[in-house]
Design goal:
With 348 residues, the protein is mainly α. The protein folds into two domains: 1-88; 104-348, no CATH class. Helix content is 64%, strand content 3%. Strands 1-3-2 form a three-stranded antiparallel β-sheet. Strand 2 (308-310) and strand 3 form a beta hairpin. It is globular.
Length: 348
């Protein structure tokens, strides 16, 4: 009987949460559109002439004002660019390429994520770093559904969304590593996520799925092109899942070898005392102390560093889960073993 009011409060909080972030997203989109317009103007002028004139200076000032950079900083950057122009000229083609990277879906979306100030990210935020619209999808992605609503304020939810963000972050790192290099970077940070199977070779497609889930979490719906990707994904999901399961079975590793965020949470709870369950929940809800954050942050970081992508979200090898939790528990003994009072553990 007590669970119903809690669920209702969670739904109301989630609805208000989506409204706030839809507003923030629209504001961010408008600001970025102004930036893109300013950059386009600079590109056109740069293509016409290499020297500075009043019109070009005005365009640069407009860009600095849009980005929020002081004129002194902008002049310093302009001076630096001019002095190094002979040794490393920036052609119009390369300028356009860099601008394209800065205005990409991924960059804009991670900027939007940076605006997230909800209490639930109190643990997650310490672990990190538009396109045309057609139709919206209001149904939550099947794999993300368990980590929304009541599932958002859980350790499993923290892992799921932190790993989803990390997927986008790794892709950004890969793109930035490509800047100024004649070939691919020495190591692709995305390899760890997908090299465990041959059936997740379309990495751009998988990235779009990650963005779709983050978009739904923040706005309560998915816009194309991520919406279109989601519809395609639903149609290929059964076959993809079947192929991956067969591949893993051939390797002697069934799905039971790979643990979901919910299963990782279940394993962790077996090693926590009641007071620790309470302090972890308080941390997830934004009520934790710095000491509690310092205690659980290493564990979450270990999990983020070793997850791999599956059709239903991030998973971990069961041996790694046992090792990570065991190592963390060894470094952070139980309160009862240290004589710590319950109220002290929670930070009251």
């Amino acid at each position: 009987m007590e669970k119903q009011p809690k669920r209702e409060r969670s739904r109301v909080a989630q609805r208000e949460y989506r409204k706030r972030h839809a507003s923030k997203f629209n504001t961010l989109k408008d600001e970025n559109q102004r930036l893109r317009n300013a950059l386009k103007r600079i590109e056109k002028l740069a293509q016409k002439r290499g020297g500075k004139d009043q019109e070009l200076e005005t365009a640069l000032a407009e860009a600095r004002e849009t980005v929020g950079v002081d004129d002194s900083d902008g002049n310093a950057q302009t001076s630096t660019s001019s002095s190094s122009e002979t040794s490393d000229p920036i052609t119009a083609e390369r300028t356009s390429y860099i601008s394209g990277l800065l205005s990409s879906d991924i960059h804009l979306h991670t900027q939007a994520l940076g605006q997230d100030v909800t209490p639930r990210l109190s643990l997650e935020k310490h672990l990190w770093t538009d396109t045309d619209r057609l139709a919206r999808i209001f149904e939550a992605p099947s794999d993300a559904r368990s980590y929304l609503g009541d599932g958002l304020y859980t350790f499993a939810g923290t892992l799921y969304w932190a790993c989803t963000r990390n997927t986008v972050s790794l892709w950004e790192t890969y793109k930035l590593n490509m800047l100024g290099r004649p070939g691919p970077p020495d190591m692709n940070p995305m390899d760890r996520l997908f090299n465990h199977t041959k059936h997740l070779s379309d990495r751009r497609f998988m990235l779009s799925l990650a963005l779709a889930r983050l978009e739904y979490k923040h706005k309560g719906f998915i816009d194309p092109p991520h919406g279109a990707t989601e519809m395609v994904y639903k149609s290929v999901l059964p076959d993809l899942r079947k192929k991956m399961e067969q591949e893993l079975a051939d390797k002697g590793q069934g799905l039971e070898w790979w643990k979901t965020p919910r299963e990782v949470e279940h394993h962790l709870m077996k090693y926590l005392e009641p007071s620790e369950v309470d302090e972890l929940q308080a941390l997830i809800e934004g009520r934790g102390s710095q000491a509690v954050l310092a205690k659980y942050k290493p564990l979450v970081e270990m999990m983020i560093e070793e997850f791999v992508c599956f059709p239903d979200g991030p998973r971990w090898n069961l041996l790694y889960v046992a090792m990570a939790v065991g190592s963390w528990r060894s470094d952070h003994p139980k309160p009862s073993e240290m004589g710590v009072e319950v109220s002290e553990a929670i930070g009251v």
